[in-house]
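Re: folding output
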Amino acid sequence: MNKTTPKVLVTGAMGQIGSELTLALRDRYGHDNVLATDVRTISGPLAETGPCDTLDVTDPEMLKGIISRYGINTVYHLAAILSATGEKNPDLCWRVNMDGTLNVLNMAVGMKLGTVLIPSSIAAFGPETPRENTPQETVLKPRTMYGVTKVCGELLGDYYVRRFGADVRGLRYPGIISSETPPGGGTTDFAVDIFYQAVQHGEYTCFVKEDTSLPMMYMPDCIKATIDLAEADPSRLKHHADFNVGALSFTAGDLAAEIRKHIPGFRVSYEPDFRQAIADSWPSSIDDSAAREEWGWKPAWDLPSMTADMLERLSARFGKNS
C-alpha cells in the first residue's frame, strides 16, 4: 500500500462489489479515509459509515474536483455497465466503461496518484479462448461490448504503466456471488439469483443450461483478492492490469444440487435466453498461477462452504429455515 495513509476513492460504490468492498476498505483504513461515489444517490450503510459524493466518471472535471477536494491518492475504479445490460445498450456501455477508465487513468498521471485498481473480467475472453484452465496469456476476442471494453481497459492500463509509470493494477473477476446485494445485470447472475429464489420461493427458472460451467468467486474472496492486489509489493508484479483469478468452477446443475442438500424440495427449470450465448463464449475454469506467484493469491471458499454460508445468511434475512 502507499507509505502515506491511503485516501481512497471508490467509483461505482453502489454496485455489487463496490457496496461491500467500500465497507471493507473503511474497516481497514479508517471510515473517514474511504470516499464512496456513484452516479446514483448513495444510501444505506455506505451513507452511514463514511464520506459519500455523487460522481459521473464520464465527466473528467467532476472526477478531478472529487480527487482534489478529498485529497485522494488511491482509486478503486468499479463504475461500469455489466455484460447483459451492456448488450441492451452498447453505446452507454462504451461511454461509461471506456471514457470513465480513460478519465481515471489520466487523473492517475496528471494528479500523481498512487495505486489505481481497475478490475477486468472473464468477459475479456471469447469463443477462441481455451475454455479449460484458461491461460494468463491467451486470445482476447470477446463477443460482448462489455468484454470489448474490458480488453481495452487492460491494454490501456498496461500502456499507462509502461508509458507514464502509473501504478495501475487489475484482475479478471469471474462471476461474483454475494448475499448482500441482488443481481446487477451480469451473465453470471444466475449463481446469485438462484439462492434468493431458493430461500424465498423454493423454485427457480435458470436462464442458462444445466450443464453451463463458469468460473465463480464468493464475495469474501473477491474482496480479499482485490485488496491483496492493491497492496502487493510492486517489485513482484510482472503483470499489471490483467491478472487471472480463480476460485470456484461449477455448472448450474452442480449449484442446484448443492442447494438441494440444504433445501431438499428445491426445484429448478432451465430456460436459456440470450445470456446463454454470452456464457458459452467464456471460460469454464481459470489458470491463475501468475496471481498466486506474484502476489500470493489463494481462495478460501469452495462450493459447499459458500453454499452453506449463502443460505444461512439469506435465510436469516428473510426469516426462513434453510
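--- second protein (sequence, then structure) ---
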Amino acid sequence: MVKSDMKRILVIGAVGQIGSELTMALRERYGNDNVVACGRKTKPSEKLLNSGPFEFIDVTKRETVEKVVKEYDIDTIYNMAAILSAVGEDKPLLCWDVNVNGVFNILEIARTYSMKRVFVPSSIAVFGPETPRVNTPQETVLKPRTMYGITKVAGELLGDYYFRKFGVDVRGVRYPGIISSETPPGGGTTDYAVEIFYEAIKNKRYTCFVKEDTVLPMMYMPDCIKATIDLMEADVSKLRHHCDFNVASMSFSAGELVEEIKKHIPGFVCEYKPDFRQAIADSWPQSIDDGVARREWGWKPSYDLKSMVKDMIDKLSKRYEEGRL
C-alpha cells in the first residue's frame, strides 16, 4: 500500500470503461476499504463489488454525492462520470447535464468540504477544425464541434476557476482514445479501436465506422491509469497547468491498426463504412504534443502500437478460449 495524503477516495463513474479499471488500481495502491466506487444505475462487476465499498449515486443530483462523501469521510474525488462523444451528439442535453452540471456539483462539494484533491478528466474532443491537427500544442484554439467537446472545455475552465478562486486542487488530462482489454467501449468516436479486437478474435471480420486513413491519438489503458494516478500524486508546486494537460502515447490510422492485427490474425478482414462519427474524427487531432506534462510531472507512456496490439490479442484470445469473451 502506498502512503499518500489522499486517505479516502471516491471514484464516480466506477462502472465505466476507465473508472472500472482505475478503481481496481487505486484499491491495490491505497487499500480496498479506502476507495469507494460509485455508479448511477449499471450493475458493477463481481470483482468491483466484492473488492471494496460500492454505492449508487447520480452526479447530477448533488445530495446523492454529498451523502456518500459525508458517510465515508471522503477527501479525494475522481469524477469519471461522463456522456461520451457519439452518445452526446444523440443526447446533447443529457451530455451537458452530466458533463457540466455534474462537474459543477463535484467542485462545489470539494470546495464545501475542503477536499485535498479532485480529478476531472478532459479529452482531445476539446479541439476542433481550427486547431493544428499535427502535434497539437498544449495552448491552442479550443473550438470543438461536438456537445461532448464543448462540455469538456467548460470542465477545464471550471476546474481552473475553482483552483484559482477557491484553492481547490483540481487536476485533469486530455485523454486521447482509450483502448482496453477489460471493459467494452461506451459510445465514443474512438470505439472502433476497441471493437476491432473483439471482432477480429471472434469472427476475423470487422466493419469500421471511420475511413482507413483516419489517424487519431490513442492510449492503452495501463498508460491511461498511470497518467491519471501520476498526475494526482504530483507535487502541486511543480504544476503550472492543472485541468488541461495534453497526454500522448501513440497515433495510428485505422488501416495501420488493421495491419498490425493481421500479424497475429492473418485471416482478418476489415471493411470501411464511415458513418456520422467520421466527421467527429476529422475535427480532432492526429497527434498530440505532451511536452508540458512530461516537464511538469514526468509523464512518459509505456506502450506503443506494436506492444499494445500484442497484449490486447494475448489477453482477449485467452478469454475467448475460456468462453469469457
